[in-house]
From TrEMBL:
Any one GO molecular function term: cysteine-type endopeptidase inhibitor activity
GO cellular component: blood microparticle; extracellular matrix; Golgi apparatus
Keywords attached to this entry: Disulfide bond, Glycoprotein, Mineral balance, Phosphoprotein, Repeat, Secreted, Signal
Protein name as annotated: Alpha-2-HS-glycoprotein
Subcellular location: Secreted
Amino acid sequence: MKSLILLLYLAQLWGCHSAPHGPELTYRQLNCDDPETEQVAQVAVDYINSHLLQGYKHTLNQIDKVKVWPRRPFGETFELEIDTLETTCHVLDPTPVANCTVRQLVEHAVEGDCDFRVLKQDGQFSVMFAKCDSSPDSAEDVRKVCPDCPLLAPFNHSRVVHAVEAALAAFNTQSNGTYFQLVEISRAQFVPLPVSTRVEFAVAATDCVAKEVTDPAKCNLLAEKQYGFCKATVTEKVGQEDVVVTCTLFQTQPVVPQPQPDGTHGVVPTSAPVDPAASVSPPAGPPAASLVVGPMVVAAHSRPPMHQAHYDLRHAFSGVASVESASGETFHLGKSPPVVQPGVAGAAGPVVPPCPGRIRYFKV
């Protein structure tokens, strides 16, 4: 019996020494304001704006967290948490986001909160995971900054719908050419004094002449889409209302050939959504690393509920629960294995947290 026990003990001991001990997967901790981190964060912001089909472009406000995972056999995966702010540039506006104005607190700002996983391999970035949501600043916070500032109003409020219809009708009446149809109501606010409604909305050109239209339902969007963005104020007066509207028209969107099952190329149907990023010129400066859009994130074309007062980023695209690495490891949200911080281990005194990073505009 003693011999059997000794034999089992020796077998277990041999098994422990012979089993391979692979290195434990660790991540590299970067500073949130490190240039490399900022470059990856900008890739994430560009990805957001290239997938938006409604509302306004967003810009980077703050990097909250960053981890860099090794990707076997080569490459690295950046795990990012970032905050964004809504700009005043509509998604159809070809203006580069670097030249767009950030919407201020007194205008009822909107903040985005995003999680990203970005693979860097051979100098290229591939977005492997993307999840965002956004929300307007609270009414209480807006009132603290500006007690009389107008707040966001629901898109489907009767006053908002009427203001947009009146503004679009006025614009088409003044037009000597193309008749424009409504694409979306983008933003609305109720002004207390003088009692008025501010609206912003997107329009598209049709094949009808404005002064000849009798039935708008018979007008069709042009094959080469031309979009515009309008701002209007409808002021209520005794027995009447004043309508002031200005519209900016963007360059036409070319018809993009689409691959067909037989290998030929067809034409995009007139109802196909436009890619806002297609006509955006990159901002001046050093060339950025190229972005490769991975197949794991698909643009969502669903329209958010119209009782909302802004277009939530969560409707821009859908994410995936986890990202599988080339080594077979799966990184799940919330997993926290050991961390490697070059130059920090063994240092005397307290370590200054590298994150969150600097706030570029303001905190909502």
